[in-house]
From TrEMBL:
Residues 891-1051 form the Helicase C-terminal domain. GO terms for cellular component: nucleus. It comes from the Eukaryota. Residues 1068-1079 have a biased composition (Basic and acidic residues). Residues 1059-1085 are annotated as: Disordered. Coiled coil: none annotated. It holds the Pfam family SNF2-rel_dom. This is TATA-binding protein-associated factor BTAF1. Residues 536-706 form the Helicase ATP-binding domain. GO terms for molecular function: ATP binding; ATP hydrolysis activity; DNA binding; helicase activity; TBP-class protein binding.
């Protein structure tokens, strides 16, 4: 390195006298370097000497020692006597080649020839082990020695280049320099040889014959050696392969050579490492050539331009195609080998950032040909062209982006060419990734053409365009107020409509009021008009979104209105012709509700709805009526069963009510729903994120497939950072990464979600008051609770959740089984909190009678005794609340005359508890209570009739419901009091149930009473629910977050009654944690693996089922 610096100074004008060196000594020194370069054998780097590089002396010693050991091992074995006799090697100066030959000649026979002799096997193993050690050492030594020789000889060659006069023979100089460009791993050393090669090429310009043409051709070939940068036409044969290799990710467009070098160097594939090094070396040499010759580069080295235009040809980008240029285009189109085109574009891509400004206009003459490759039939050529244009845009932004607007955007609208549309979408996506904020001024020009392709008939085009659209959306807010970019023709700049669209996309409040084309039978509130404006905006631009207004704000009305207006508008514009029918998919309980709402608000001459339900035979018979109706209302379950038929229909609107049902992307219902084909897709959900942020991916995969990337990409980009940030022990870096991921996701989806809360838009809605009424365990419940705590079942649960961290609990068989045990225990305790009969059953077991014998001495029928209300404090509390509401009281009592008219909804998780309320309270104690009941036993077709009957008849005091059946979508505003006998792990489900009454149309204050057993599992779970938090304010909120964030001791604590259950709530430390939990430290892997399956076990369908707890109860006395 010092020698190179010294010789460079001498060549650049500082005479030898300055350094005190005589010309004779200088020439002698130069000759000595040439003599060293003549030594091409890496093992003999110096002339007339057999010594290797001093740096390798220890490795040589190790090799010779191992060779000597092998010799003596073979000699002792007696296997290779003839070989030993012919071997005449001096191990003290053994060469590398001799060592390899000696090890290779020791060819061992198969072990079978040694028979069963243990001694023979031992000798065999010793010889083979020694042989393999020697071969390993020689292989390592050969590789290191070769690399070291390349480094030394290339630096010596560089020093010779910087001497004033080149020798007559250039091969001893050129070969080491080129070897360094291909193989030198250290970039700083490669820089030195690349600079020397550029100097050599400059010195050889006038040399005849000269090496320059061959050198330039080799450099251009080396730019295409990195297969991660240069697509291989033989490998990337389809869009699927390109997606599988993740060639469109941001990692593929970083352009950071150092980071890419490190990532590639860690790969197992040696060819990738060599490809990267070769490309880097070639680009360094081209960089120094551009720096050396500047604007004269193509004049001094015309071969470089020949390589740039080997297949691509220059065309004037400003004017129309001449006849000659058309011939050029035709000639390029006829090139049969796509790899030739790819390699040529890679050379352009490598040199584009390096060229002098004066030469860039000439390089731009190749741009028209490159743009035509964006629409090439071969996907690898399209990818190479898109990457090339992106790289050129970074250094020639104004000119290249003007060409993008002029050439690529029209390709998006080329209905005759799928490759053109796909290539243009891919190009814009790579531009966004590659240019970042530099693309902001151009974002408004690109977004509208992309939108028009997002409903393309070809899946690959949709995916390409949607990905690009998703990438460009976050840039749009930055473009507001910016002047249009320069260099673009006036007629290509966005028109007023596009400008207006962008403002509306970024700000919902700026959307103009949409005038419905049909009259509604209701006056819209302002926020409902704004919601319809937003829906109309989505429809106009073929966008899709989620209307996630708070529950009870009229999502059904808004969706019905936009569908009706679309139907009426089409009829007016097309002389009464019918638009394709729309399909509304909702929970089965709401099918009748939708039909009722449409009939209530929409003119029947505009919308004619059909309820597509019933048995298989009934549904088949209904299909013949589809043509007579323009709205088909069906359930998710029917879609799952009839997807083969419904998936073939072309729908206008596909509306998913309670669309969070498709949050699980692997469920059969989700798979079926995503097969429905519709021009407009809309999701209605008051709680779009039910489980966690990952639910959002499945919803958008229905709306705009590809908008949030693949599931794997979404997990990597958002899921992993957010999950890491949720860990209380996460680092500051992880917390920051989680916050950034959340912000990025918010910006991404913001334009496609509209959410208003009741607090924001309904100032006239009466308040909702939630009151927790605590009850103490009855003696029976306390006895059973304590009996469970000392049972065999409790011990089994304890052993399951206390699995050691080192134990592999991810086993597919272990976790579900363990989760099932925990689930049964939770179910037992929760049922016990509600009523002892829920765990005793209609016929109490002998074991149960034995346990309760102390409480009921001489009682012949324990079951009958348990039906007395005082054994269930919740039943007493329920009776008290009903009487406070004036329900079931003696009207002759003067004290109750002034009690206002209240109507009550009673929610329970299990039908059995409703049975007990109906039998033991209403029929036995409060006979004058009038009530209806709605649970899973009521057939779907009859459920809405019960709702209408309750709403229309004020003499009905009470409606009994299960949370599963009555908690979604129903309008029960005629009730003003809600009583929750039991509670759901997921607070969203109980909140949805509350909003059956607390919604638009409610005139009274809504009182919610939650009955909670003090000091039990129920109280502990309720304290973890955080009911007063809205899911909209807690985006990352797991359905069972309270369980999944517990440590082992906390979970076990759920199964234990508090000692002071009759005195009050659990004693707490100052920090709010219970005394027992102070000793808890972290959750084990076993616990996490078990609880990860609890979501699946606690399925909504299980709310209406009775659990057979006989087997579980048998363990209570084990």
């Amino acid at each position: 390195m010092v020698l190179i610096s010294w010789s460079k100074q001498i060549k650049r004008g500082e005479g030898l006298s300055v350094h005190g060196v005589s010309p004779a000594l200088f020439e002698q020194f130069k000759k000595w370097l040439l003599d060293l370069l003549a030594c091409t054998d890496p093992s003999l780097p110096t002339k007339e000497s057999s010594l290797p590089y001093a740096e390798l002396s220890r490795t040589y010693s190790k090799m010779r020692s191992e060779a000597n050991h092998l010799f003596h091992t073979v000699e002792a074995s007696g296997m290779f006597n003839e070989l030993l006799l012919s071997t005449n090697v001096k191990f003290e100066n053994l060469s590398l080649d001799d060592a390899v030959n000696f090890a290779s000649n020791v060819v061992l026979p198969s072990y079978d020839s040694t028979g069963e002799n243990p001694a023979g096997k031992h000798v065999f193993d010793d010889v083979e082990s020694s042989r393999q050690r020697l071969l390993t050492t020689t292989g390592y030594l050969k590789c290191v020695q070769a690399n070291l020789h390349v480094t030394v000889s290339s630096l010596m060659a560089a020093a010779v280049v910087w001497f004033s006069d080149l020798p007559s023979r250039l091969n001893p100089i050129i070969l080491p320099l080129m070897a360094s460009l291909k193989r030198e791993q250290e970039e700083i050393l490669q820089q030195k040889t690349a600079e020397a090669l550029a100097e050599l090429i400059g010195d050889c310009i006038a040399r005849k014959p000269g090496p320059n043409e061959k050198l330039i051709k080799n450099l251009c070939s080396l730019t295409g050696m990195d297969h991660s940068e240069t697509p291989q036409a033989g490998i990337i044969t389809s869009i699927e392969v390109m997606e599988e290799q993740d060639l469109l990710s941001s990692r593929a467009m970083t352009g950071n050579q150092k980071s890419r070098g490190r990532s590639v160097a860690g790969a197992e594939d040696r060819s990738r490492v060599e490809g990267f090094i070769s490309r880097r070396g070639a680009e360094l040499a081209l960089k120094h050539l551009c720096k050396k010759f500047g604007a004269l580069l193509f004049d001094k080295i015309p071969k470089l331009w020949d390589c740039l235009s080997e297949v691509l040809k220059p065309i004037d980008p400003e004017g129309d195609f001449t006849v000659e240029e058309r011939k050029i285009v035709m000639a390029i189109e006829s090139v049969k080998d796509p790899q030739l085109l790819i390699n040529n574009m890679q050379v352009v891509r490598s040199i584009a950032p390096l060229l002098d400004e004066a030469l860039k206009p000439k390089l731009l003459t190749l741009l028209p040909c490159i743009f035509r490759r964006v629409r090439h039939l071969h996907v690898a050529v399209r990818l190479a062209a898109s990457r090339c244009i992106t790289t050129m845009a970074k250094s020639m932004k104004v000119s290249v982006m003007a060409s993008v607007v002029e050439n690529a955007l029209p390709m998006l609208g080329d209905a005759a060419s799928v490759p053109a549309r796909h290539g243009a979408g891919m190009l814009i996506g790579l531009l966004v990734q590659g240019m970042g904020v530099e693309l902001v001024p151009y974002a408004p020009l690109l977004v509208v053409p992309l939108l028009r392709c997002m409903s393309d008939s070809d899946a690959s085009v949709r995916q390409s365009v949607t990905r690009s659209f998703a990438a460009i959306v976050p840039l749009l807010p930055l473009a507001r107020g910016l002047p249009p970019p320069g260099g673009i023709r006036e007629d290509l700049l966005r028109d007023k409509e596009d400008a207006k669209f962008l403002e509306q996309l970024l700000d919902n409040s700026s959307i103009d009021d949409y005038k419905l084309h049909t009259e509604l039978k209701v006056t819209l509130r302002r926020y409902q008009q704004e919601g319809i404006n937003w829906l109309a905006f989505l429809k106009r631009f073929k966008l899709h979104g989620i209307l996630c207004d708070d529950m009870g704000l009229g999502k059904t009305l808004q969706a019905s209105a936009i569908v009706a207006s679309d139907v009426a508008e089409h009829q007016l514009a097309n002389n009464g012709s019918q638009l394709s029918a729309s399909i509304i998919v909702c929970p089965s309980t709401l099918v009748g509700h939708w039909a009722y709402e449409i009939e209530k608000f929409i003119d029947p001459s505009v919308i004619s709805s059909l309820q597509y339900l019933g048995s298989s035979e009934e549904r088949i018979s209904l299909r013949s009526q589809f043509t007579k109706h323009n709205v088909i209302i069906t359930s998710y379950d029917v879609v799952r069963k009839d997807v083969d038929f419904l998936g073939q229909c072309q729908w206008n609107y596909c509306i998913l009510d309670e669309g969070h049902i498709i949050k699980n992307c692997r469920s059969k219902i989700t798979s079926a729903v995503k097969q429905l084909k519709a021009q407009n897709r809309l999701i209605l959900s008051g709680t779009p994120i039910q489980n966690n942020i990952l639910d959002l991916w499945s919803l958008f995969d229905f709306l705009m497939p590809g908008f949030l990337g693949t599931e794997r990409q979404f997990q990597s980009t958002y899921g992993k950072p957010l999950l890491a940030a949720r860990d209380p022990k996460c680092s500051a870096k992880d917390a920051e990464a989680g916050a950034l991921a959340m912000e990025a996701l918010h910006k991404q989806v913001m334009p496609f979600l509209l959410r208003r809360t009741k607090d924001e838009v309904l100032s006239d809605l009466p308040e909702k008051i939630i009151q927790d009424r605590y009850c103490d365990l009855s003696p029976v419940q306390l006895k059973l609770y304590e009996q469970f705590s000392s049972s065999h079942a409790k011990k089994e649960i304890s052993s399951i959740v206390s699995l050691d961290d080192s134990k592999d609990t991810k086993d597919a068989n272990v976790a579900p089984r363990a989760s099932s045990h925990i689930f049964q225990a939770l179910q037992y305790l929760l049922k016990l909190c509600s009523h002892p009969l829920l765990v005793a059953g209609d016929k109490a077991a002998d074991s149960l009678r034995l346990i309760l014998s102390d409480l009921f001495p001489g009682c012949p029928d324990v079951t009958s005794e348990l039906r007395n209300l005082h054994h269930s404090p919740k039943m007493i509390a329920l009776q008290e609340i009903l009487e406070e509401c004036g329900i079931g009281v003696d009207t002759s009592n003067s004290d109750m005359i002034n009690v206002g008219q209240h109507r009550v909804l009673i929610f329970a998780q299990h039908k059995a508890l409703l049975d007990i309320i109906e039998r033991d309270l209403f029929r036995a104690q409060m006979r004058n209570v009038t009530y209806l009941r709605l649970d899973g036993s009521v057939v779907t077709e009859k459920r809405f009739e019960i709702v209408k009957a309750f709403n229309s008849d004020p003499t009905i005091d009470v409606l009994l419901l299960t949370t599963h059946v009555g908690g979604l979508g129903l309008n029960l505003t005629s009730a003003d009091t809600l009583i929750f006998m039991e509670h759901d792990w997921n607070p969203m489900r109980d909140l949805q149930a509350m909003d059956r009454a607390h919604r638009l149309g409610q005139k009274k204050v809504v009182n919610v009473h939650r009955l909670i057993m003090r000091g039990t599992l129920e109280e502990k779970v309720m304290s973890l629910q955080k009911f007063k938090l809205s899911v909209a304010n807690s985006v990352i909120n797991s359905e069972n977050a309270s369980l999944k964030t517990m440590n082992t001791d906390q979970l076990l604590d759920l199964f234990t009654p508090a000692d002071n259950s009759r005195k009050g709530s659990l004693s707490r430390n100052r920090d709010g944690s219970s005394n027992e939990n102070k000793k808890a430290s972290g959750s084990g892997k076993g616990l996490k693996a078990i609880l990860s399956n609890l979501d699946d076990l606690w399925d909504q369908s299980q709310y209406t089922e009775e659990y057979n707890l006989d087997q579980f109860l048998s363990k209570l006395n084990g």
